[in-house]
Amino acid sequence: MLNSVSLTGRLTRDVDLRYTQSGTAAGSFTLAVDRKFKSKNGERETDFVNCQIWRKSAENFANFTKKGSLVGVEGHIQTRTYDNAQGQKVFVTEVIVENFALLESRQASQNNPKSQQTANASATATTNTSQTTPNASRANATDPFANNGQPIDIQDDDLPF
């Protein structure tokens, strides 16, 4: 039998990192995954998949991601049950994450519209640092590839092919 899951999507919220009584890290999060096809009205539908991640991987995942981060996860599906406050049996199906990959740079995730406040704070800190360090501005002046985060204008005639 094969029980394998591979998903790519964005976090709908920050990872909820908790610790068991024995000190084992456990993280839970929801991944928004777009479907390959569009609905009848032409819109792409999204599935929201609950995920669990354990131990050191959970701590790393929580430290390096935030709401809106684009990630890839691999793992397996697990179903568990519990009795709720009304005495009803509740079934929960979730992905137990075994491996993950961060699919965008920190700068790209900071430029994500959902986290624009973080990007603005980071840009302010970077600007303040470069203004107080004379070597930083000199290094940018001699670096032909530095463009202060602005798009580089490349013409077809500039390309060697």
Q: Could you explain how this protein is built, in words?
A:
It is a single chain. With 161 residues, the protein is of the alpha+beta class. 25% of the residues lie in helices and 40% in strands. The protein contains 4 helices and 6 strands. It has a 5-stranded mixed barrel with strand order 1-3-4-6-5. The protein is extended and about 70 Å long. The N and C termini lie far apart (50 Å). Residues 114-139 have low confidence and may be disordered.
Keywords:
extended; 4 helices; 161 residues; five-stranded mixed β-barrel; alpha+beta
- End-to-end distance: 50 Å
Biggest sheet, spatial arrangement of strands: 1-3-4-6-5
Structural class: alpha+beta
Query: What percentage of residues falls in helices of 4 or more residues?
Result: 25-40%
CA radius of gyration:
22 Å
Largest sheet: 5 strands, mixed, barrel
Q: Regions with pLDDT < 50 over 5+ consecutive residues?
A: 114-139
Extended strand count: 6
What is the H/E string? EEEEHEEHHH
| Overall body shape | extended
* Tally of DSSP helical segments: 4
Task: Summarize the entry for a quick read.
The chain is of the alpha+beta class and 161 residues long.
Please render the helix and strand layout as text.
Blueprint: E1 5-11, E2 16-19, E3 25-38, E4 44-54, H1 55-64, E5 70-83, E6 89-102, H2 106-110, H3 116-132, H4 134-142
Parallel strand pairs: 4-6
Antiparallel strand pairs: 1-3, 1-5, 2-3, 3-4, 5-6
